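[User]
Protein folding is very new to me. Any chance you could explain this protein sequence and its structure tokens? I have pasted everything here:
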Amino acid sequence: MVPGVLASLRKDQGSSDKTMKLPTISIASYRVTRLIIGGNPYSGISHRSAAASQAMIDYYTTHQIIADLRQAEQNGINTVLARADRHIMRVLNEYRNAGGTIQWIAQTPKDTEYADLNEYLQIIARYKPIAIYHHGGTTDKLYAEGQLDSLHESLKHIRDLGCAVGIGTHDPLILKHCYADGFDVDFYVCALYNHTRHRELYLPDDRYAAFSAIQAIPMPIIAIKVLAAGRNEPRDAFQLALENIKPTDAMAVGMYTQFQPDQIHQNARTVVKLSSDVA
């Protein structure tokens, strides 16, 4: 056990702010807060530069990831969306052993990180995610290669493992295609910026193409890249997203506390206020 973690996790919350009353959505049988904490910073994925990614890796020790997840819990966020890599799974295991209760939506790694997806899904399931969704970049790659139908078997395997089932994509056209083709999923994950097509160019018009697709599909959708990897001012970006996604949709947002220790609290408070205004 990392020193101090257990004590931190069991600390009386009476000394902190009262738990935020974030609204929730349904994904299969689970209630998920409309603000989900994203795990890219924990895996050193900055979408900025190699130096920025390395700084995240240096900052996010096991102790710090657990501290951030605990701060998320204290501020009413009940779900983390993070990669199902060996590092994250070990950290989540330690966090839970120390009393952590946040739910995990698992993103499969890139297709270069496993030999057989179905075998790797069994490993992921051991760490008890509430849901597993197929990595968006890999979905986009399969679509470009005309092999999207190969996902059906793996989606069935996720369902057989007892997890909610999802597909991720960075392209709203692929989102529409998957829905029209009747893929057996409980939710989708859709980027507000088309990272597959435009890489690190965060073009404002991409958001409206994504919003149009999200609004057209009557299933829960988790919007990602809401802050354009920290390039957007949070309040305005949250407001735009909440005004343009459905009430049954959520946002997953990476939060990096090294230079703003109360960022998780501030984001949760902002979404609570905006959700009340939009309702």
Notes: Residues 13 and 261 are 17 Å apart (CA to CA).
